[in-house]
Specification:
Layout (H helix, E strand, L loop, with lengths): L1 H20 L10 E2 H4 L9 E5 L6 E5 L6 E3 H4 L8 E9 L5 E7 L5 E7 L3 E5 L13 E2 L10 E8 L2 E6 L3 E6 L13 E4 L11 E10 L2 H5 L7 H7 L3 H6 L17 H4 L10 H5 L29
Antiparallel strand pairs: 1-14, 2-3, 3-14, 4-13, 5-10, 5-14, 6-7, 6-13, 7-8, 8-9, 10-11, 11-12
C-alpha cells in the first residue's frame, strides 16, 4: 500500500515537471526577416531594387501591382510571440494612408496590422477579440507619409505598445489585450494590402523584421545611423562639387562626369534594375490593379478584389 502511495505521488509530479520544462517554441529563435520570407530579393512582380537610406544600402520599391503574401505558419512555425518588436525602415509616397503589414487568422479576422500615414495606426486583436476597435492604439500627430525615409520601431509588451520614430520620438499607448493573448498562425500574412481595402502600399522599404521580446526595439537606435541620408540629399549640389576628394566621404563620392539628373533624385534608384534592363516600367494604372492575392489561403478561399 505504501508503494502505491509513492507511485501516486510520483505520477502527480510528472505533469509539473513537464510543465516546467516546456518553453515557448519561439524562445531564442532568430528574428523573422519578413522581406526575405516574402521573396523580395528575387524581385517578384511589382518590386524592384532601389537605393536605401545610405547609398550603399539596398531597398525595394513597391508599386501597386505587387502581390506579396505567405502562410503565417511559414514565418512563425512555433507560434507568434506574445511580446515582440517590429522594426522597419520605410519611405512612402507623400500623402499615402495604407497598410504596411497585415496578419489574418484562418477565419479571415485581421489580428495584426501596421498602417502608415496620418495618423499612424497599430491594429491588434487576440483570440478573445481584444482590444475592441474603440480601444485600438492610434498615434495622432505622427505622419510617416511625407516622402522621407523613417526608421520605425514598435515594442509590444503586456498591456501597452510603444512607437519609436527616427530614434527621436517615443510614444506609448495602452493595449488592453488578454493576459495570455494568442494570434492564430494558420492564416495568411500580407504585405502592403488588406482584403476588401483599396489602399495599398506604394514606396520604398529597406527592412521589415519581427523579433521576440521588446529589447530589439529599444536597442535599434544604437545600431542605426540616419546621418548618411541627410549628408547625401540635403546638401546643395554646388557645395558637393567644390569639395575636394579628401573632404568628401568615400561612400558618398560620385564621379564628376555623371549626368545631373542622376545625381539628385527624390526617390533614389540603383544603376541597374530588373525593369530598366527590360526597358519597361510597372503599370500602376487603376485598371491593372491586382484583383486577388497570388496564393489565397486554402481556408480563406478565393479572396475578393482589393479594388
Amino acid at each position: 500500500m505504501e508503494r502505491c502511495s509513492r507511485c501516486h505521488r510520483l505520477f502527480l509530479l510528472v505533469p509539473l515537471v513537464l510543465g516546467l520544462s516546456v518553453v515557448p517554441a519561439w524562445a531564442g529563435v532568430p528574428p523573422v526577416d519578413v522581406l526575405r520570407a516574402l521573396r523580395f530579393p528575387s524581385l517578384p512582380d511589382g518590386v524592384r531594387r532601389a537605393r536605401g537610406i545610405c547609398p550603399a544600402d539596398v531597398a525595394y520599391r513597391v508599386s501597386r501591382p505587387a502581390q506579396l503574401s505567405a502562410p503565417t505558419r511559414q514565418l512563425f512555425p512555433g507560434g507568434f510571440p506574445k511580446d515582440f518588436s517590429l522594426l522597419t525602415a520605410v519611405r512612402t509616397r507623400p500623402g499615402l494612408q495604407a497598410p504596411l503589414l497585415t496578419l489574418y487568422s484562418a477565419q479571415g479576422v485581421q489580428q495584426l496590422g501596421l498602417e502608415l500615414g496620418r495618423p499612424f495606426r497599430f491594429l491588434y486583436e487576440d483570440q478573445t477579440g481584444r482590444p475592441q476597435p474603440p480601444a485600438q492604439p492610434v498615434f495622432r500627430g505622427l505622419s510617416l507619409a511625407d516622402g522621407k525615409w523613417h526608421r520605425v520601431a514598435v515594442a509590444v509588451k503586456g498591456q501597452s505598445v510603444t512607437l519609436i520614430v527616427d530614434c527621436k520620438k517615443r510614444v506609448t499607448r495602452p493595449l488592453p489585450r488578454s493576459a495570455r493573448p494568442l494570434l492564430d498562425t494558420h492564416g495568411v500574412i500580407i504585405f502592403g494590402a488588406r482584403i476588401l481595402d483599396e489602399e495599398v502600399f506604394e514606396g520604398d522599404i529597406q527592412e521589415l523584421v519581427i523579433v521576440p521580446g521588446v529589447q530589439a526595439a529599444y536597442e535599434s537606435c544604437e545600431q542605426k545611423e540616419l546621418e548618411c541620408e541627410g549628408a547625401w540629399r540635403e546638401k546643395p549640389q554646388k557645395h558637393r562639387a567644390q569639395r575636394s576628394p579628401k573632404q568628401q566621404p568615400s561612400r558618398l563620392h560620385r564621379p564628376q562626369n555623371q549626368e545631373p539628373q542622376q545625381q539628385v533624385r527624390e526617390l533614389g534608384e540603383p544603376q541597374t534594375t530588373a525593369h530598366s534592363r527590360e526597358g519597361r516600367h510597372p503599370d500602376t494604372s487603376p485598371g491593372n490593379s491586382p484583383k486577388c492575392l497570388r496564393a489565397p489561403h486554402p481556408i480563406l478561399g478565393s479572396c475578393p478584389p482589393l479594388h
